[in-house]
Amino acid sequence: MSTAVHGHTHGHDDHAHHPTGLRRFLTTTNHKDIGTMYLWFAFAMFLTGGVMALIIRAELFQPGLQITHPDFFNQMISLHGLIMVFGAIMPAFVGFANWQIPMMIGAPDMAFPRLNNWSFWLLPPAASLLVVSLFVPGGAVAAGWTLYPPLTVQMGMGMDLAIFALHILGMSSILGSINIITTILNMRAPGMTLMKMPLFVWTWLITAYLLVAVMPVLAGAVTMVLTDRHFGTHFFNPAGGGDPVLFQHVFWFFGHPEVYIIAIPAFGVISQVIPAFSRKPLFGYTSMVYATASIAILSFLVWAHHMYTTGIPLEAQLYFMYATSLIAVPTGVKVFNWVATMWKGSLSFETPMLFAIGFLFLFTIGGFTGLVLAITPVDIQLHDTYYVVAHFHYVMVAGALFSAFAGIYFWLPKWIGRMYDEKLGKWHFWLSFITFNLAFFVQHFLGLAGMPRRIPDYALQFADFNMVSSIGAFGFGLSQLLFLYIIVKAIRSGEKAPARPWEGADTLEWTHLPTPAPYHSFETPPLVK
Amino acid sequence: MDDGFAADHPDFSLTAKRNCSLQGAERWRAFWILAVVSGLIGSASVGIGAWPIVPFTGLELAALYVAFRRLARDAGDYERVTIRGDRLIVESHTRGRVCRFESNRYWTQVVVRKDVWSCQIALRSHGREIEFGTLLSEGARLAAARRLQDLLRVKR
After folding, report:
1. What residue numbers bound the domain in which B93 lies?
2. Model ipTM?
3. CB-based contact A202:A292 (threshold 8 Å)
4. Taking the model in full, what pTM does it have?
């Protein structure tokens, strides 16, 4: 259409035209659409990985082999880990980044919107490859999410599909990170200096730096596995002069920062939610920024605490033990600051705050058990036991997932313009909190008693705690269906949200934008004082 | 956007620039911080025999360089429309290329093209046309179109 302007006035909504239907989501370059797609994709993957977890827990409900073949069990634990880490948690926080970063820094969109679209659309094929690998001869990868050789060198074509999937997922992460870095650095509204950015934005800037640094390491590691499998190299094959422990060094050089790639954006969400519901500014903003950066830097220096039992020299064990323990310092600063923010605040306990406090409590437990595992002589006893499983689920589920729930409940009114059902939200929190602890707290005892991880059958003495854990896991899984219901109910028939449903929230998206946020926001950057 | 219209001065000038919070030196400092860390990791991987990491590091740094290069290139872009007497001048500086369009104010028409995907404005005169407002937001672009239309319709 081509028209000459005749000076008539246009309302703002005239500019909010955008394509609809499937085409909108295939071709969209709008950060909000892409954020929504990331979040729904992550939830679908969360359910997929969750079903796998329930298959695992059903098998472990009692001793003996009841439901699965041991090899299928191994495929379940491997795919559960890969799907949850790469398909669910990481995309969920990229979804938050897409929705929130432009709105929080006063930018109209991401720096490279089309690249943003590609970053997302790389994910579904990669996830499909992982799931489809279950149906190829030999089944899916069955060596755990850590993909240790020599097992991975020997497996069927499911392993090739997993390697290909990881390459695609890595590519998506790198493109997304480049976009996030350039957006945050180059598109901040006038007056928004780095030290005025909301902490969520800071945490994502640091996370994106980590991703850029370590993703090529993962790509290289799985490529070496691939060439060992098909092209006659011997990177990890001792028969050809290779070393399987090399893979562990390379993998964990990626893998430990990866833990913080998941945890640091979670810290960012919590750092927005706690001040909003304490009606106080975040305590120690500057120290929070430096603590986050310190955690990121230290995460590069501690990888071999995952490898105490591989026979690394005593000096190395000592170094990695001390270096790992050092991470407790900046983490402690963060926990202290969150608690100090709540101290003498005008607290209220809506669902986002409940999940934030749940995070604080459970993540601290996960942190402490991490400290226990950092101590070399203890780790040698607990290595590859259920204690480790309990530890990282306290970090990954209670840490990352609870903070994702906190963030979704917190920003949902801004995203859709409707409120969720507060009563059901609280039910979701309490059910998740109780069942999560039921599922995972007892696993500490199983680990201390010596139950190895990644086994489909176990000795009779572990039966009671395993039964409790399985009941908790099924409860936790079912609680997430309530979450789905709450979100769908809010979208379809939720009460209209007021402009600022949380009076303590004071970042740009709450103070400068209507609720729900318009399709195009901050086309003219605001001036930040 | 710099809108320089004064009541006692008949000329009009509107300049649109990108909002870039990262300046020249800072931009490349940010790039080099990333590049040095990734480069060190790549070099260390060669040292331990895991050289297949290096091509991926190289590819990634190339992508990062292209992104920062593009930021640097786009940072200098501007568009300026000036009305002086009966002359209308449009200058656009896009990715190092300068375009200049000059026409008679009273023979120039503002054209708006709007479809489901985007909204464009252009200035047309004697069969020649130049797009304007690519650096403006959609709202600001339409506001600029209306303002220009009003100014161009002023009778002699």
Report:
1. 2-18+77-152
2. 0.91
3. yes
4. 0.91
